[in-house]
Amino acid sequence: xxxxxxxxxxxxxxxxxxxxxxxxxxxxxxxxxxxxxxxxxxxxxxxxxxxxxxxxxxxxxxxxxxxxxxxxxxxxxxxxxxxxxxxxxxxxxxxxxxxxxxxxxxxxxxxxxxxxxxxxxxxxxxxxxxxxxxxxxxxxxxxxxxxxxxxxxxxxxxxxxxx
Length: 163
Prior knowledge:
By secondary structure, the chain is an alpha+beta fold. The protein has helices spanning 43-49, 110-116, 142-153, 155-161, and strands at residues 16-22, 25-32, 39-42, 57-64, 70-84, 89-99, 106-108, 118-121, 126-131, 134-139. Strand 9 and strand 10 (134-139) form a beta hairpin. It is globular and about 40 Å long.
């Protein structure tokens, strides 16, 4: 198991950030959050995917957290997410809700993780995935996570990043 720590500074309690693929586009800065009851795609990420003939179900409502913070939900739809594992890949049809406020590119919550049938190790910064009877690994990106955290904690940097 020590070899699985690969490129992670220890000790840490960082959230897991991974890279996935949607529609032949590689999406970096994807937060894996087991506390989320929905999978979230940010509107600017969807626009950058440039999916032709793709539309989302419009709905304007608020999405609340346990701390009673809210963000505006603007729609939902299903996209195929490819989780690259070493040496395998897993394709998961994922129902995303779309929101406007960006920090990460998307947030994958419990619905995605349940579909993936994964085992998450925060210590190792790895998702272990069963694919066709074999175990693959989705490796976390601790550097990207720490960069996302620094950006989200500093509104000036956040504003420059998304303009």
